[in-house]
Design a protein that fits this description.
Structural class: alpha+beta
Shape: globular
Radius of gyration: 15 Å
Number of strands: 7
Largest sheet: 7 strands, mixed
Number of helices: 5
Order of helices and strands: EHHEEEHEHEEH
Strand content: 25-35%
Distance between the termini: 11 Å
Helix content: 25-40%
Length: 176
């Protein structure tokens, strides 16, 4: 599977993203009750933020996932772990579909990780998924993440998980 990413446009993409983040399958995205203007406001703030960026992932030109990249020393994980230079935080959300394709989500997370590690300055990817999100824990493990501890965030209890570049490269070799 080949994916590309482009910067998210907070206005042009708001309706699309609103449908994704409010879908029942996106419960862990914590925007179930968001209105369209809430999504616009959230992504306007992200696009204006120096340390947080949002992207739309495409397959054959069609939007199929949302990806966020952030600096965990400045966003999301401030004070919750010892951030290192080269750490990059990540969130991803696959668009809901009525016709799931086996292996698609694994292809998406692999593409997200390849995109993040394409920047030579990135040495580790850091995530903080909800402890109850068993599906994403399995995906994270498949691409090389290891859970390093449980952390308490205001909105959830999360497993802080880290994937060094070498672990991703080793896992990527095993998944292809």
């Amino acid at each position: 599977m080949t994916f590309t990413v482009r910067p998210l446009d907070p206005f042009a993409d708001a309706e699309l993203v609103h449908g994704w983040v409010t879908h029942p399958k996106a419960a862990f995205w914590l925007m179930q009750d968001a209105k369209l203007h809430d999504v616009e406001r959230e992504y306007m703030a992200i696009s204006a933020h120096e340390h947080h960026h949002a992207f739309i992932g495409l397959k054959d030109g069609e939007p199929v996932f949302l990806m966020e990249r952030y600096d965990p020393a400045h966003v999301e994980l401030v004070g919750l772990y010892d951030a290192r230079p080269g750490d990059v935080g990540m969130h991803f959300l696959v668009a809901p579909t009525d016709t799931p394709v086996h292996g698609f989500t694994r292809g998406v997370i692999t593409a997200v990780m390849e995109t993040l590690f394409a920047d030579e300055a990135t040495t580790r990817v850091v995530v903080e998924p909800d402890v109850r999100n068993k599906a994403v824990h399995a995906l994270n493990e498949a691409v090389g993440f290891e859970i390093v501890g449980k952390i308490e965030k205001p909105e959830k209890d999360a497993y802080l998980s880290i994937c060094p570049r070498e672990q991703f490269m080793a896992a990527r070799g095993a998944i292809r």
